Amino acid sequence: MSLNTKVNNLHSVDSEASSLATSCLKLNRLKSETIKNKRTKSELDIIYLEDSVILQVQRKGRPPESYYGFGDLVVKRIKSAWEWEAEDELIAIASTSVNSLVVMGCDLITWEIPFESLPYLAQVSESEKANFEIDVDGSYLYWEAADLHVDLEDLKAAVDPEFKEQLLMKKLEYGKSFGKAIATVRKAHKLTQNEIEGLSDRHLRRIEKEGQQPTLDVLKKLSASHGLDLENYLAQVNKALE
């Protein structure tokens, strides 16, 4: 689904709108449900009216915020994200302005990211920047013209240095875990680090010990040295990760 509508026209969080929404709920509410996220200490109320849906978010230490004007698909996406406790990782809706990308996460926090902060968008022409699709569950934005996928974490990291640092640490920790799993599989096959054809033992040490991310070519060399196709090799690595 291409999204060309301005995000700011799709929701309201001002106090007057919240007051109006609250008063209307008492009269026109058909049903409602509450989803709580224990990790973030926040909760989402979904209030179904006759011809619309109102979302109210209660965040720790902050007054409730009301949002409205979303279509059924977006409401479903937001609801699913909260049920998975992944609302801060998935995209609810997005649009473009003249010089930036405007993205709302399923936690209903809006981010405005200047195009100049997204160097990988340089491969997308100006006329195509607004021509993207959002994954059905909000996992990424996709520009078909450049075969480019971008997720919410990458977008937030582009404008939030602290978040970028946390993300790098998270990826490093995952990389180390993945490296340990690669070492576990190698040892199970009774291979030494210098027995991986086409890969130096120094390079392999960086992967197994330092968390360096292996490329697809490296994974193919590892799988071949283990006498496995890539699919079966990765299945063994994933089992070691567990």
Could you explain how this protein is built, in words?
The protein has 242 residues and is α+β, with helices and mostly antiparallel strands. The chain has seven helices and ten strands. 24% of the residues are buried. The protein is elongated and about 65 Å long. It folds into two domains: 1-159, no CATH class; 162-241, 434 Repressor (Amino-terminal Domain) (Orthogonal Bundle), CATH 1.10.260.40. The strands form three sheets. Strands 1-2-3-4 form a four-stranded antiparallel sheet, with helices on both faces. Strands 5-6-7 form a three-stranded antiparallel sheet. Strands 8-9-10 form a three-stranded antiparallel sheet. Residues 1-15 have low confidence and may be disordered. The protein has helices spanning 15-28, 72-83, 152-159, 161-188, 201-210, 216-225, 230-241; strands at residues 31-37, 42-48, 53-58, 65-68, 91-96, 100-105, 110-114, 133-134, 141-143, 148-150. Strand 5 and strand 6 form a beta hairpin.
**Helix/sheet category:** alpha+beta
Residue share in helices?
Answer: 25-40%
Number of strands: 10
- List unreliable stretches of 5+ residues: 1-15
Question: Could you state the order of secondary-structure elements as H and E?
Answer: HEEEEHEEEEEEHHHHH
Shape field = elongated
The overall average pLDDT, rounded, is 85
How many discrete structural domains?
2
The largest sheet is: 4 strands, antiparallel
Strand order of the largest sheet: 1-2-3-4
